[in-house]
Amino acid sequence: MILEDLLIFGSVMIVAWFLFIYNWPRMLLYVYKRAILVKGFGEDPIPINTLYLEPQKLFAEPITSQSASSSNLATVGANHDTLLSGGWLDLRKGPQVLHVPDMKGRYYSVQFTNPSNNTVFAYVGKRATGTEAGDYLITGPNWKGQVPSAMKQISSPKNSVLVLGRVLVENNSDLSTAHHLAEQIRLTPLNQKGSI
Predict the structure, then answer these.
(1) pTM given for the model
(2) Which tens digit of pLDDT belongs to each residue from 65-109?
(3) Measured between alpha carbons, how far apart are the two ends of the chain, in Å?
(4) CATH hierarchy code of domain 37-195
(5) Which of 126, 114, 120, 113 is nearest to 166 (CA)?
(6) Which of 51, 92, 95, 196 is geometrically suited to a Cys-Cys bond with 139, CB 3.0 to 4.6 A?
(7) Contact at 8 Å (CB) between 49 and 96?
């Protein structure tokens, strides 16, 4: 009887362990999504389909520009030579257009992550698409429209997308220029693209 109980207990523990491992990335991304949408990067919440850019002051003085009691996602694990931006897309209501300015050879990247399995499915940036100005149409899995000319399509496997952007800051005197370029990386719904 004791052996049977141990076998049942061991089987249940193995199944529970596999379920935990399988769901851990989803749980982490859910927490991250809630943090972005409710708390933002330490200031205000970030609305869906909006990119938030790390403030210039926070990048220049990451420790002194925030109070000791507040937590700031932008400084946790961040590179010390890139400005960070981030946001969460919901493509159920239609595609979003990502606009990037001419970076004139500067390193930058915008990463698109599938939050259901924490995999990166596309990049826009110096290594992937070059540094010229461009517009990229981010579409959900069920979108059936036509891609406007002069836009490149990025097809998302899910309607929910985590977007993380980085722009290189070469030195202290370059911070204003880099920040100005990073401000020009923006999202717009496809049906409002003509208003940009």
Answers:
(1) 0.74
(2) 444 444 444 444 456 788 888 888 999 989 999 999 999 999 999
(3) 73
(4) 2.60.40.1610
(5) 126
(6) 95
(7) yes
